[in-house]
Design brief:
The chain has about 450 residues and is an all-alpha fold. The chain has one domain: Growth Hormone, Chain: A. The chain contains 18 helices and 4 strands. The strands form 2 sheets. A two-stranded parallel ribbon has the order 1-2. A hairpin with a 2-residue loop joins β3 and β4 (about 440). α3 (about 40-50) crosses α12 and α14 packs antiparallel against α16. The longest helix has about 40 residues, at about 375-415. The chain is globular.
């Protein structure tokens, strides 16, 4: 008689293995170098303005090019990852952003930098949904919130590393040194990924391919073989082809729209802050060698908040958490607008922005990864992040104009407006009384 072996149930019942931790660690490292390269333009912005004699408004195309590439990459490579596989698409994304970042160190003019930042953005934006999906699919449901949050921490971790290096190395190596490091390091990681990074077991089962390979991987995780006569299954209906339209079926349309709008407005504020923070602080009177520490501060608090959030997210109402974060962000923006040159207060508020303006990404990514079936997961994550990148484009593009128009104080206070709009979007999200994870899905999304 034919029997079945449920892949999600098997992973849920087994303790975490060293192999699973290896997969999570590889995804974290991809995110870390992604975060380093994403924020490279923020660290080097003031130096680029000096090197190429640019006004803040003229730096906007450089800031925006990478974010546009990230939006396109998140949407296209997420879909490609569902169709071709997580592993080959992740490898391609890392290769792309590593080579483009390395080439930026040898750019001779702003036009070249803009083009290379766009290409790097394609890889950086595409890598994020893929590694989140892969990590989630190798983890048990009970730890999925902590796993995806842990992987996501690689992004601010890389940003912190970049900020510290920029503060020390920019005076010694110039802006080119940051891009040399940002290109060479992920190329070394790529060699490791070629040897160690696996394909998603759930995706292979969903597509009905590489059955024996999945059995071997499962045995490596659990230490127990899968009977040859047992058919591998997952808790989902088969989806023959990933598509954006599927995100609007089966009662998902309202929440898909609401999540997209939340990403859009939240990322306008987040990237206005991240992309221009060192430049705004320098314009407000802070010494140039201290300005990169603003990026370090906001990302350090982001990481510190992520640890308890990863524990609380499966137990609390996600919409309520988002509303608390947004309210905090609005208060922080107003406070920064009033703080002037009280630098201790400014840095305290910048740290709080890591929770009130950036922390929403933790809750939203947790919600998205657990709300869609395997065959749509990277597509759903990619498009949500892609829409967020549109907000990032807007935030990065208008930053120079806002700074020139209203100065540093007005710039900080202006961050509150998109956050208010994000509150309205969050209010659209439907949640049930039990906003908790069950069998790889979230009960709050219907």
């Amino acid at each position: 008689m034919s029997t079945t072996c449920s892949l999600p149930d098997t992973l849920d019942q087994a303790p975490l293995s060293r192999y699973q931790i290896l997969v999570f660690s590889l995804c974290f490292l991809v995110a870390m170098f992604d975060g380093f390269d994403t924020q490279a333009i923020a660290y080097t912005g003031p130096a680029l303005m000096g090197a190429f004699n640019l006004a803040p408004g003229e730096l906007a195309p450089v800031m925006t090019a990478g974010v546009i590439g990230m939006a396109v990459g998140a949407m296209s490579l997420g879909l490609l990852g569902d169709r071709l596989g997580r592993r080959p698409t992740i490898l391609g994304a890392v290769l792309l952003f590593a080579c483009a970042t390395l080439a930026t160190a040898f750019a001779q003019n702003v036009t070249q930098i803009v083009s290379l930042r766009f290409l790097a953005g394609l890889g950086m934006g595409g890598a994020t949904p893929l590694i989140l999906a892969l990590a989630a699919e190798y983890g048990p449901a009970r730890h999925r919130g902590a796993i995806t949050t842990g992987v996501l921490l690689g992004l601010p971790g890389g940003a912190i590393l970049g900020g510290l290096l920029a503060a020390k190395l920019l005076p010694l190596l110039g802006w080119q040194g940051i891009y040399l490091i940002g290109g060479i390091a992920p190329l070394v990681l790529l060699l490791v990924l070629l040897v160690l990074l696996p394909e998603s077991m759930q995706l292979q089962v969903a597509k009905g391919v590489h059955d024996e390979r999945v059995r071997q991987t499962l045995q490596r995780i659990t230490g127990q073989g899968v009977p040859e006569h047992a058919r591998l299954t997952i808790h989902e209906q088969s989806v023959s082809k990933a598509s954006v339209g599927a995100l609007f079926k089966d009662g998902l349309a309202r929440n898909t729209i609401a999540v997209w709008l939340t990403y859009l407005f939240n990322w306008i504020a987040w990237f206005m802050l991240l992309s221009w923070l060192p430049t705004v602080l320098k314009s407000a009177g802070l010494a140039a060698d201290l300005a990169p520490y603003g990026t370090v501060t906001v990302n350090a608090v982001f990481i510190a908040c992520a640890i308890p959030l990863s524990i609380l997210l499966p137990r609390l109402n996600t919409r309520s958490i988002l509303l608390v974060m947004l309210a905090t962000g609005i208060a922080v923006a107003i406070g920064l607008g009033l703080a002037g040159q009280q630098w201790p207060l400014v840095f305290v508020l910048i740290g709080l922005a890591g929770f009130g303006i950036g922390g929403q990404q933790l809750a939203l990514n947790y919600l998205i990864v657990t709300a869609y079936p395997t065959a749509l997961r990277a597509t759903a994550t990619g498009w949500a992040i892609g829409v967020g990148r549109v907000g990032a484009i807007i935030g990065s593009a208008i930053g120079g104009w806002v700074l020139e128009s209203v100065g540093p104080a007005g710039y900080f206070a202006g961050l509150a407006l998109p956050l208010v709009l994000a509150v309205a979007a969050v209010m659209m999200i439907r949640v049930s009384r039990d906003d908790r994870q069950t069998d790889g899905e979230v009960a709050s999304v219907h």
